[in-house]
Amino acid sequence: MKYLQKIYILIFLLLLSPIDVILAAGPPPPPPNPGCWPPPCAPIDGGVCFLILAGLLLGAFKIYTSFKRKTV
User: What pTM was computed for the model?
Assistant: First the structure.
């Protein structure tokens, strides 16, 4: 009788042991994408237009002054 109890307990423990693996929590989800790093991001869409315009004006001024020097 004690032999059967030991077998039942052994079978019960063997069947119960995978439950720990089944009920284990998975890894946490990844954090949401902030979009840019570091968080206080500066927009570049407004200032780029002014920089391009300033570069065009400076280039036009340089070309104008170089033609003006050649004619004198």
Answer: 0.39
Helices (H), the chain: 2-16, 18-22, 45-71
The rounded distance, in Å, linking the Cα atoms of 20 and 40 is 44
The answer to whether the beta carbons of residues 15 and 8 sit under 8 Å apart is no
| Residues contacting 41, CB < 8 A, separation 6+ | 35
- The two three-digit tokens of residue 65, written as one number: 């002054």
Q: Which two tokens stand for residue 61?
A: 């001024």
More confident residue, 43 or 56: 56
Spatial separation of the C-alpha atoms in residues 71 and 63, rounded to whole Å:
13
Does the structure show a pLDDT above 60 at 55? Answer: yes
